[in-house]
Amino acid sequence: MQKVTAKNVTMHPSFIRALMDRVADKMIPYQWEALNDRIPDADPSYCIRNFKAAAHLVDAPHAGCVFQDSDLAKWLEAASYMLLWRDDPETEKNIDEVVEIMRKAQMEDGYLDTYYQLTDIDQRFTNLRDNHELYCAGHLLEAAVAYFDATGKREFLDIMLKYVDLIDATFGSAEDKKHGYPGHEEIELALVKLYGITHDPKHLNLAKYFIDERGSQRHYFDEEAKLRGGSPAWAHSVYERNSYYQASEPVRSQMHALGHAVRQVYLLTGMAEVARETNDESLKLACKRMWNNITRKQMYITGAVGQTAFGEAFTYDFDLPNDTVYGETCASIAMFFFAQSMLRLETKGEYGDIMDTMLYNGTISGMNLEGNRFFYVNPLECIPERSEKSQIIRHIKPVRQKWFGCACCPPNLARMITSLPSCIFTSEGNSLYMNLYTCCDLDLKLDNGRVALSCETDYPQSGLIRIKIAHSFDGFALNLRLPAWVRSYELRVNGEQRISTMDNGYVALGALKDGDEIVYELHMPVDVVRANPRVSQDAGLIAIRRGPMVYCLEEIDNGANLANISISPKSEFTAVYDKEKLGGITEISCPAKRISLEGWDEYELYASNREPIYEDFTARFVPYYSWNNRGKGEMRVWIKTH
Amino acid sequence: MQKVTAKNVTMHPSFIRALMDRVADKMIPYQWEALNDRIPDADPSYCIRNFKAAAHLVDAPHAGCVFQDSDLAKWLEAASYMLLWRDDPETEKNIDEVVEIMRKAQMEDGYLDTYYQLTDIDQRFTNLRDNHELYCAGHLLEAAVAYFDATGKREFLDIMLKYVDLIDATFGSAEDKKHGYPGHEEIELALVKLYGITHDPKHLNLAKYFIDERGSQRHYFDEEAKLRGGSPAWAHSVYERNSYYQASEPVRSQMHALGHAVRQVYLLTGMAEVARETNDESLKLACKRMWNNITRKQMYITGAVGQTAFGEAFTYDFDLPNDTVYGETCASIAMFFFAQSMLRLETKGEYGDIMDTMLYNGTISGMNLEGNRFFYVNPLECIPERSEKSQIIRHIKPVRQKWFGCACCPPNLARMITSLPSCIFTSEGNSLYMNLYTCCDLDLKLDNGRVALSCETDYPQSGLIRIKIAHSFDGFALNLRLPAWVRSYELRVNGEQRISTMDNGYVALGALKDGDEIVYELHMPVDVVRANPRVSQDAGLIAIRRGPMVYCLEEIDNGANLANISISPKSEFTAVYDKEKLGGITEISCPAKRISLEGWDEYELYASNREPIYEDFTARFVPYYSWNNRGKGEMRVWIKTH
Q1: How far is CA B610 from CA A542, A573, B206, B375, in A?
Q2: Taking the mean position of all CA atoms in its chain, how far away is CA A337?
């Protein structure tokens, strides 16, 4: 399948458009300030200062993480996507200035990584395992491709082409090259994006090389460690031989997602991209196996992935602790990208379903409604006092933070959200696939003709979707994703019910004429969800979901001690849209019981043969993404039943 | 109250006697082998080798932990207690040989700590915070007192008196002394034991000094760190200013148990000992406040304390996670000691209740039924696959280990168990208090006369206790602890019902004559226990307890996926003694339901509006202490209800 890019799509006011505007209005300017160290009381980023220092424009040592360059790269990419749907000369000017700094910072031979340039340049490319050079290069490359695509300006792209030439000259299967691959995957998928512009096989081949070499029996990370006299990776104390880096075995042999979650999913995204471009069946199979492992065995209902803070990593199948979870915002964002790559590899609605899960839950939970406070970790249960006093969950912050010393998540969210216009549709031949539902116009040339349509919906508040065909052609087929959560729906064309053929999670509509009006109504009741009983942490519990959105209880609506609340799965649920609350949400309420503290002295820890006293009350659920926007308090997704 | 020591008590076959024999027959010889590095496939201890090296008998560097000496000390103490009730010339000879090595190892000025003697002796007493010198001294001192008490031999005691003189000359309030106190408390309680033999006020005063100085605004640990140019404590990254060491404020100001659990409870034991000997009311008040905080707000139902692996530490009130718990065996042992010290400070059955809780649950769970495998951590929930694959609970071993590099728990268990004959009774004036119930004879001189009695019971399998008075005197009063779990009981003297006065958790019997037969029957039904609803982790769950013993489900009896099991709190419970099973246990069974895996594909993680399918079966509970004696498998204490 092909992407249908933002150039063919116009976004109108909607849930998604509001996210985009929040990012454009708040996050992109805010992050620009952050990258320039101008946010009061927040850790400085030093990101741009590092590039200026490498360009000899200021005199300063390297500061920040070894991968600090990537924060700027992600911001550049986000801003570039934004330029496709919003004129913003000031941001464009800022980018051009940054590109000019980069040009000055770039070394004669193409190298560009401020960490090594400002520390010991002789050590470059000697520690791929830990020091993120190729990761940073990958992010810069994505940004350069995006900026070229948005503006047609070549400067940034040229810088990166030169750097890629150096990387290509350094790594590969040839005898005189290093047989390395990145400790943090990312450049693989970026190289395929580059190939999409250049069509230069060396770019695709380099991506393929990094993937094929990974985890081979040479054990490159151990080899390079020996060469530099370095110590074993810190991760060795916890993870078996390089599995933290997905490098303990070849990617085609891997059976379970493992190690650092963002790395794992970026790798998979790169694999899916290479598999599509090279028609590599064994690689495609590996991608599907891993997709199934993650989404069907290791993914939280919110779309969070990475169950443990130790290494921000996957653990094992059906292990989904709600209180100690990691669930990095970046990992869910990575899943959103991976789903898109899988969708292009294989036309299945399931991939769009996961895009929905990520988009409406575990990614945007990473930012507040104002777009200036961020979560790195997205728990399914939060008791602020625990987060503050129990060291085992100190990674779970009870309130969103201004900025992070390691600030990977905020700019990653920005680039995901500004790229959303390119995620709505995909196409193949004369078929158009609508994957996300939002208010927009499309104008697109397909193989045999042009199609123009507009979509109106208040999705995800309801499942009523109206599509008007402005222009069609013979042989055009419109495929509408039928989300997995749908139990019943109606499809009418010009008021007449249409029985549509279903294929792989889409309903297909053919024979559409100019002026046709399609009403696609996905009934959106409140769903009571249970987890597979193999998940010990969710045994006997339920979660509330409506459409693609997972809900949670917050203390501010329901009082403290949320663990004591139970509801009946057979409850009457009320779902009411409240445009004032939390920026506009559909609130869900139902009768509930709460175990009372009555009869329990504060100095009485256990009692025998004492029946609990229950209080009746009305539980109020809000969408998970919107939690923690009204001060600090408890939150819980999985709820007890009675 | 006074201790009634093992010299007045003869132990007969019973649950407790079996523990004592297991320790004497297995653990003490096994640990002797371990201390001598002769256990195949286990981490060597190096403990005795270190002493030999310090004595210049072998040439070897220091090995093991900085506090390795204490492992030997605890073994010496355990063996000494054993000598009070068992002739064992070989062990006595081993001890004498070790004492001779110690004599040779001791420095001219009395110093004795193999770590500093074998590394850099000039650095001694420069890092009390981290390096455990005073802790090791305390354990050696306890051992020396115990060996002197058991054998009358003075050599070991004299070594330690000389060392204590050096410590006393080094630390104190005088201008020219260091104003330090131990980073790991222990010596305080040991010094009061020493004072019990020497009656030398300087020994009591030194204990009191360490307690009074602790946490004063000088912040000694910071002072000494500055002096040696040392780094802040590792614990600073997690804990506020020295609170890990209970040194952030004076002990009389502390409101909640905090920091490293064993340190906290050893400190409290020392405080209770000093409070008793000095009649210090403010210190007594502090002890009671902390006792209440721990036992009524921070203690697991099994007696485990220390909720987090980060620093093996307390967290905060009502935070009792069952899966990530630390619950070090040593911390429950410390609680057993603390309870005894509190009991001597204040005559309340509550302290005996906690001795029971510790004795029958969270301490002896630390060893297997053979006495040669040990748990350091005692979880209330174990899923072996999680322990093996989820790094956040890698501290929770799914099977007991042979020995530990840091082997504090096994010898600590040994010394607790061999000291049990001294824990049964206490006395005051003409009153005798029976705190633990077991088969034994007592022969004791009280203020106005001699009392002799014998007790027969199969406690804790039942609550039937028969006491025969062999010799009594006018004014003798027998006080029998009435455990807090008792809901009904009978008390008969020579077959006639006796209404007894109750005072502070004891039933009191006066006017007893020679030949009187007392039958004290504590009815012991199965108790369904709930936690205070403030404990979020136990909300809606129940635990099964019978008498002092907490029960658990094991996979071997109930199948896997224990989280899916629920029982009704109103179930009919059957309790049957099975002398073959697990060395003789009372097994509890009841009807139960289990959520079935039926209908759930292995690749299906979530489903909406699907009711669980329940299977009926009979749940079988075994005493918590006996878990993991039949291979690796799941275990769970807190169970769901229906």
Answers
A1: 10, 16, 68, 41
A2: 6
Q: Is B561 in CB contact (< 8 Å) with chain A?
A: yes
For A210-219, the pLDDT digits (tens) are 999 999 987 8
Measured between alpha carbons, how far is B393 from B478 in angstroms, rounded to an integer?
48
HEC-encoded secondary structure of B555-605:
HHHHCCCHHHEEECCCCCCEEEEECCHHHCEEEEEEEEEEECCCCCCCCCC
Distance from chain centroid for Cα B129: 23
Residues A210, A171: contact at Cβ < 8 Å? Answer: yes
Nearest to B608 among A545, A608, A612 (CB): A545
Give the residue with greater pLDDT, B232 vs B551: B551
Read off the amino acid at residue A407.
A
Taking CA atoms, B351 is separated from A586, B348, B590, in Å, by: 54, 6, 32
State yes or no: is A455 an active-site residue: no
Give contacts of A543 with chain B, Cβ < 8 Å.
Answer: 606
> What's the Cα-to-Cα distance from B574 to each of A522, A594, B525, rounded to whole Å?
53, 31, 9
Give me the percent of chain B exceeding a pLDDT of 70: 98
User: pLDDT digits over A250-269, tens only?
Assistant: 999 999 999 999 999 999 99
Tokens 């803070």, residue located:
A309
Q: In what order do the strands lie in the sheet with B440-446?
A: B9-11, B440-446, B449-457, B464-471, B517-522, B489-493, B496-497
The active-site residue out of B65, B330, B408, B409 is B408
For chain A, give every domain's residue range: 257-414, 425-522, 526-641
Q: What is the pLDDT of residue A503?
A: 74
The pLDDT assigned to B408 comes to 72
The confidence score (pLDDT) of residue B528 equals 98
Cβ pair A595:B540 closer than 8 A? yes
Q: What is the largest CA-CA distance in chain A?
A: 79
pLDDT band for position B178 (cuts 50, 70, 90): very high
Candidates B261, B230, B260, B227; CA nearest to B242 is: B260
- The full DSSP string for B473-509 is -TT-EEEEE--TT-S-EEEEETTEE---EEETTEEEE
Residue A52 reports pLDDT greater than 80: yes
A237 touches chain B (CB under 8 A): no
Phi/psi for A257 (5° steps) reads -60, 135
Q: Which residue out of B391, B486, B527, B595 would a mutagenesis test of the A interface target, given it has the greatest number of A Cβ atoms within 10 Å?
A: B391
Task: Say which of A77, A312, A381, A555 is annotated catalytic.
Answer: A312
Q: What is the pLDDT of residues B493-547, one digit of tens each?
A: 999 998 887 779 999 999 999 999 999 999 999 999 999 999 999 999 999 999 9
Point out which residues pair with B530 in neighbouring strands.
A607
Q: How many CA atoms lie within 13 A of A454 on its CB side?
A: 7
> What is the CATH code of the structural domain delimited by A425-522?
2.60.420
Residue A51 exposed, middle or buried by CB count within 10 Å (0-12, 13-18, 19+) = buried
Dihedral sign for Cα atoms in the order A34, A37, A43, A49: positive
End-to-end CA distance of chain B: 47
- Cβ atoms B612, A532 nearer than 8 A: no
Residue with tokens 């419109």: A478
Q: How far apart are CA A89 and CA A69, in angstroms?
A: 23
- Provide the token pair at A531: 């987890």
Note whether B528 contacts A324, CB cutoff 8 Å: no
Which pLDDT band holds residue A404 (cuts at 50, 70, 90)? low
Tokens 């104390």 sit at which residue? A237
Phi and psi of B153, rounded to 5°? -75, 135
Q: What are phi and psi of A11, to 5 degrees?
A: -95, 135
What whole-number percentage of chain A has pLDDT above 70? Answer: 98
Distance CA A125, CA B67 (A): 43
